[in-house]
Automatic annotation (TrEMBL):
This is Uncharacterized protein LOC106180799. It comes from Lingula anatina (Brachiopod). The keyword tRNA processing does not apply. InterPro entries: NF-kappa-B_Signaling_Reg, PDDEXK-like_dom_sf, Restrct_endonuc-II-like, SAP_dom, SAP_dom_sf, YqaJ_viral_recombinase, Znf_SWIM. The keyword Ligase does not apply. Keywords: Metal-binding, Zinc, Zinc-finger. The lineage of its organism: Eukaryota, Metazoa, Spiralia, Lophotrochozoa, Brachiopoda. Pfam families: SAP, YqaJ. One of its GO terms (molecular function) is zinc ion binding. The gene is LOC106180799. It comes from the Eukaryota. PANTHER family: EXONUCLEASE, PHAGE-TYPE/RECB, C-TERMINAL DOMAIN-CONTAINING PROTEIN, YQAJ VIRAL RECOMBINASE DOMAIN-CONTAINING PROTEIN.
């Protein structure tokens, strides 16, 4: 027998072409094919003797069979096979059921249906034969041919042709054809172990690992630089910090490492529309606030100095009681003033205790005199400058707030500019609040923030009560806002970021 193994690929292909056989596949497939042809004595000479070649459409016009696109019947099959002395016997059935047919394609022309299939040889599965069958539109079998020795057309009835007819019948009956399954047609089964492990489970520590466990923490420094003092230091620091972060433990060694430079961290993240600082301030409702949040703050801070949230919300902002101090501030130390504003300090001096004690009584007294009901309220945040806030002592009407003062030093006295230094007489001999006093800044600021135009300023002593009507002064407020904006941008903002974003020590 010819030793095809020694033939170069080119020669193998030439020989296959000479025999009008397929030349596709790997070298081994070509050799197998030639050997199979030899075995069946399909030498070139014999092959060329084949006179019949079915006229059929171009390969490109064939389509995959989907659904029952070919209609035929057992009757038509019998009409074709019985005169040739054969039938769809067990041999053909076994071949079909054992998935020897690789694929079936079809092509419908105006008057015929052409079926083209590929079937593996019974003994050498590497060898495949191509089968062509021609039917009429109604499913009547006209012609057939097969590449095998017995498959000469136009009425080939070899086992391959008959297996193919079984497939066509299945298709016609709407059944799924039994074809060779490829690995891609199956569900994936990688997760199914090939061998089941019946021993006891392996401990994680003993699972063989490709990498050395000591290198679990990735260190990009080349090994020769690993033992320099700074490399050792950073390795120990990283290991300690990672350990603390992963276990939420607080090992004493952490005391040795300075905190991260948050300013550097945040300056690295400059790709957003807003800087990290501005984002933080917005999220804190200090530079931006919506109506819902404003209302939330107002409700949550009801009760003012008896409410913890009132203190924390106040610390984030410049409150109206400090407006005067800030606006009148000389170049002393605005940073220090900003720090003071932000510290939660609950002053507990006698005047403050006195004020807190009598405020309620003063409001009752005011209600009695003016014949109104005063509504309690919480912290009001300014809508356009959320870093400004005010806590009026009460809401009298939609357009009027109440501010109550209970001066401690004159608690037993009648109210006059002598006993209460922030008051003075106007040209008509009426008591009024001094324009330049901090209380005026407070009241004007509170009116601006609560969007009211009037304020009743009530001074209360145990012997006397005076109510002074103050109206909104837009000129003064605008002057004041300019200075407050300036203070916020230059000092308050910086101090707040240092404290709450960068966590710098205070
Ligand atoms: Zn055949």
């Amino acid at each position: 027998m010819t030793t095809y193994d020694e033939w170069p690929l080119k020669k193998l292909k030439e020989e296959l072409r000479r025999r009008r056989a397929r030349v596709s596949g790997r070298k081994k497939d070509l050799i197998d094919r030639l050997v199979a042809y030899d075995r069946m004595c399909l030498t070139g000479q014999e092959e060329s003797k084949r006179e019949y070649q079915m006229l059929r459409p171009d390969d490109k016009l064939y389509k995959d069979v989907a659904g029952s696109v070919i209609k035929t019947s057992q009757e038509f099959v019998d009409q074709f096979l019985l005169p040739l002395g054969t039938s769809l016997n067990k041999l053909a059935m076994d071949m079909y059921k054992d998935r020897f047919i690789r694929f079936i394609r079809f092509c419908k022309t105006e008057s015929f249906i052409f079926v083209r299939a590929q079937c593996r040889a019974k003994m050498r599965r590497a060898v495949t034969y191509t089968i062509d069958i021609k039917l009429e539109q109604d499913g009547y079998f006209l012609e057939s041919q097969c590449e095998c020795k017995a498959g000469e057309g136009p009425s080939a009835h070899c086992k391959h042709v008959r297996a193919c007819m079984l497939a066509i019948l299945d298709c016609s009956n709407g059944n799924k054809m039994v074809l060779e399954t490829t690995c891609t047609a199956e569900l994936q089964s990688f997760h199914r172990p090939k061998k089941i492990h019946y021993g006891s489970p392996i401990k994680t520590a003993n699972v063989p690992s490709r990498s050395n466990n000591s290198k679990l923490i990735f260190n990009p420094i080349p090994e020769q630089f690993n033992e320099t003092p700074s490399a050792v230091y950073s390795r120990v620091a990283n290991a300690s910090i990672n350990f603390a972060a992963n276990t939420s433990a607080n090992p004493a060694i952490l005391q040795l490492f300075p905190p991260a430079n948050l300013r550097a961290v945040y300056s690295d993240h400059d790709y957003n529309k807003l800087s990290p600082e501005d984002q933080f301030l917005e999220s804190e409702n200090i530079t931006a606030i919506n109506a819902t949040e404003m209302q939330k703050v107002k409700t949550a801070t009801m009760g003012q100095n008896t409410n913890k949230i009132w203190y924390s919300e106040r610390c984030k902002r410049i409150t109206s009681s400090n407006f005067g101090k800030i606006c009148k501030m000389k170049k002393a130390d605005p940073g220090k003033a900003a720090k003071e504003l932000q510290s939660v300090k609950q002053l507990n001096t006698k005047p403050i205790r006195h004020g807190q004690r009598y405020e309620f009584k003063a409001v009752r007294e005011y209600e009695k005199i003016s014949g109104v009901t005063v509504q309690k309220t919480g912290l009001w945040v300014d809508a356009s400058r959320p870093y400004l806030a005010a806590s009026p002592d009460g809401i009298v009407s939609v357009d009027k707030i109440l501010e109550v003062k209970c001066p401690y030093s004159s608690k037993e006295q009648i109210i006059s500019p002598v006993t209460v230094p922030y008051l003075e007489y106007d040209n008509n001999g009426q008591l009024k609040l001094k324009k330049n006093h901090d209380y005026m800044y407070q009241v004007q600021g509170a009116m601006h923030i609560t969007k009211t135009k009037k304020c009743d300023f009530a001074v209360f002593t145990l012997k006397d009560i005076k109510i002074i009507s103050i109206t909104y002064d837009i000129v003064m407020v605008e002057e004041m806002l300019k200075k407050l904006d300036d203070f916020f941008v230059k000092h308050f903002r910086r101090v707040y970021l240092e404290r709450y974003l960068y966590h710098e020590s205070y």
